[in-house]
Amino acid sequence: MTSLAAVTEELRSGYHRQLEEIDTAMARMIAVVTEAIAGADAALLGGDDGAVATVALRREEIKVLHTTVESLVFTQLVRQAPVAGELRFLIGVLRIVPEIELSAALAGDIARRGGMHVGSELSPRIRGLVSQLFDHALGMWRLASDAYRDRAPEILEQLEARDEEIDELHASLTGELTSGILRAPVVYEMALVARFLERLGDHAVEVGRWVESFSSARRRPVVID
Question: 212 to each of 47, 69, 154, how far by Cα in Å?
């Protein structure tokens, strides 16, 4: 006959395995967003038609991971009634996942405009500003990845500083777009792209804020007994 202690230990081990699974899936989702942003850059400014399809695939991967993570989190909330650090971690995950999926959608929207070859009509000045926005957005998501992986709440300050820089670049790009250099349809599409890139920065900051909320112990929640 299996003892109660053995059953309890088995349940607890399964609980920690699922927390590890959630953690691994979240790290992958954040990594996929950075890949999608890089792909959007290649599609828009590099004229890489293949990148459009690649970004679409990355977005589908995130949708699948989103469903998996949500299912696992709700299972743990219902069956295990977690408390303290584990509860903060699971709630943080539920808040972070939508930020990731929205960011993947934005990268997909930018990539589709690359498929329209909008980037080929940009002036050197506008192209340079867009390239800087991509660099900042990509850099911020890499910082968000570092913050999540290392449970490093101090990275939030860096994300917020970079977000202010993105806002300034967005304002500069908007000014250039209203100068009358480009055709009206291109201006419209690029105004959307500028807004999408600015929003990518906002979402990275939100990830950093939620990581801060469950990183006070500076250790991974999955090892809490």
Answer: 38, 20, 8
Structural domain harbouring 207: 7-218
Q: Tell me which residue of 118, 162, 158 sits closest to 137, measured CA to CA.
A: 162
Which residue is associated with the tokens 């957005």? 137
Asked if residue 29 belongs to a domain, the reply is: yes
How many Å apart are CA 167 and CA 147, to the nearest integer? 22
Residue 175: partners with Cβ closer than 8 Å, 6 or more residues away: none
Q: Is 224 inside a domain boundary? A: no
Q: Whole-model pTM?
A: 0.88
Sign of the CA dihedral running 136, 139, 140, 141: positive
145-199 tens-digit pLDDT: 999 999 999 999 999 999 999 999 999 999 999 998 899 999 999 999 999 999 9
Structural domain includes residue 180 = yes
CA–CA distance, 2 with 9 (Å, rounded to integer): 11
Distance between start and end Cα atoms, the chain:
26
Task: Give the three-state DSSP class for 17.
Answer: helix
Measure the CA–CA gap between 79 and 28, rounded to whole angstroms: 25
**144 in a structural domain:** yes
Contact in structure between 94 and 70 (CB atoms under 8 Å): yes
- Whether 166 and 133 have beta carbons less than 8 Å apart is answered as yes
| CATH number of the domain within which 209 lies | 1.20.58.220
Question: How far is it, in rounded angstroms, from Cα 214 to Cα 41?
Answer: 32
The domain tally of the chain equals 1
